[in-house]
Amino acid sequence: MSAAQEHRDPSTKEAPIVPPPPGSIADRFKEVLPDVEFVANQAVLDVILTVARQDIPRVMRAAKDDPRLAFDYLRCLCGVDQMEQGLEVVYHLYSFKHAHNVTIKTLLPADDPQVATVTTVWNGALWHERETHEMFGIVFQGHPDLRPLLLEEDLGYYPLLKSHPLAEIEQSQEQFLREESKQ
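and the corresponding C-alpha cells:
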C-alpha cells in the first residue's frame, strides 16, 4: 500500500472514470490527430486527454494551430507526483474562439522525468515550466531558461515531490491535526 493510500480518508471514494459524451472535444482531437493514441475521460469541467510524452509536441501544436481546436490560451501547466506511477504533467487549455476547454496529461517515468517544452507553442509556458521544474524536477527539453523562480538553485530536493525530506513530518502533522479536529 502506498503512503497516499495509507493516509487517505477511508470515507472518500475514487471518482468513476466516465467517457466523454459523443461530439465532445475528444472527437475533434481524433479528427485532427487520427494516428495519435490517447485516453479520453470526462471530468467535472473538462475532457481529459492522456497522451504519450513523445506525442506532446505534435498534440500541442495541433491544439493551437488547427482551426477546429484553436486552443490559443494555456491556462495552466503543472506537475503531479503520482508516486510509483511517475510524474504527470498537466496542461489546461482554453479556446477563446470556440469557448471550449481541454486538459491534456502525460505521464513521465520517475527515473526519466523529461518532456518537450511547449514554450514554442505558448509563450506563457515559460514561467509555468520553470515553476514545475523547480517544484518537481521535471525537465522541459528545449526550454530556454529553467532557472529556479522562487528557491535557491542548490536546494537539493524538489519540494512538491512526495518523497522530499519533510514529507514524513508533514504526514505526522496531518495525522495530528485530524485527531485534534475529532476532539
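(Above: one complete record from the training split.) The radius of gyration is 18 Å.
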